[in-house]
Amino acid sequence: MNNFMNYKYILLVLILAGALVGGWFYMNKEKEMAPAKSFDPSLVTKNDVVIIQKADAFYPSEVTIKKGTRVVWINESGNFIWPASDLHPTHEAYPGFDPEEPIDMAKAWGFTFEKVGNWNFHDHLKPNRRGVVHVTE
Ligand SMILES: [Cu+2]
Q1: How far apart are CA 127 and CA 21, in angstroms?
Q2: Which residues have beta carbons under 5 A from ligand 1 (an ion)?
Q3: Confidence (pLDDT) at 130
Q4: Predicted structure pTM score
Q5: Alpha-carbon distance values, 112 to 7, 86, 90, 124 (Å)
Q6: Alpha helices per DSSP H over 1-137
Q7: Distance in angstroms (rounded) separating the CA atoms of residues 106 and 112
Q8: What is the Å distance from ligand 1's center to 82 Cα?
Q9: Stretch 97-106: mean pLDDT, rounded?
Q10: What angle do CA 78, 83, 86 make, to 5 degrees?
Q11: Are 102 and 82 contacting, i.e. CB atoms less than 8 angstroms apart?
């Protein structure tokens, strides 16, 4: 009887541990998949490379960064912006380089580039506004 109780107890602990580990992985995956939300421009750090989006264009529209650098778009356009990877409208050239929602006025949005390459981007709301991020090793 005692052995049987122990067996049930161990089984229960294993099930709970499995649920916890599974839940942890699930939550982490959710976090990874969710696009980073917009934030206040005061949270930009000195390690970020900043692109200001004004009403007519990105300033600058071309930046060169090292892999692992975050580029932050600050919205000074007086309207919503949506900086995202080419190709419009699917943004599949660099999956993840897409806030998946408009960025409000006077807000910022950042993306950390982990892949070396020349990543063209555009404003998803005004696709003729264009730029490029060159990412080097
Ligand atoms: Cu687009």
Answers
A1: 43
A2: 84, 88-89, 124
A3: 98
A4: 0.74
A5: 48, 16, 19, 19
A6: 2-33
A7: 20
A8: 8
A9: 96
A10: 145
A11: yes
Tell me the average pLDDT of the chain: 89
Taking the CB of residue 113, how many other CB atoms lie within 10 A of it? Answer: 23
Using DSSP's 3-state secondary structure scheme, residue 137 falls into: coil
- Per the CB < 8 A criterion, the answer to whether 73 and 53 are in contact is yes
pLDDT in tens, 49-78: 999 999 999 999 999 999 999 999 999 999
Split at pLDDT 50, 70, 90, the class of 30 is low
Q: Which residue has the tokens 């696709």?
A: 127
In which order are the strands placed within the sheet that holds 58-59?
58-59, 49-53, 70-75, 108-112
Q: Specify the range with the lowest mean pLDDT, choosing from 16-20, 74-78, 83-87.
A: 16-20
Q: Ligand 1 mean position to 122 CA, how many Å?
A: 6
Question: What is the distance, to the nearest Å, from the Cα of residue 116 to the centroid of all Cα atoms in its chain?
Answer: 16
Token reading at 10: 């161990």
Q: Write the burial class of residue 91 (CB in 10 Å: 0-12 exposed, 13-18 middle, 19+ buried).
A: buried
Chain length of the chain: 137
Q: How far is the CA of 124 from the centre of ligand 1 (A)?
A: 4
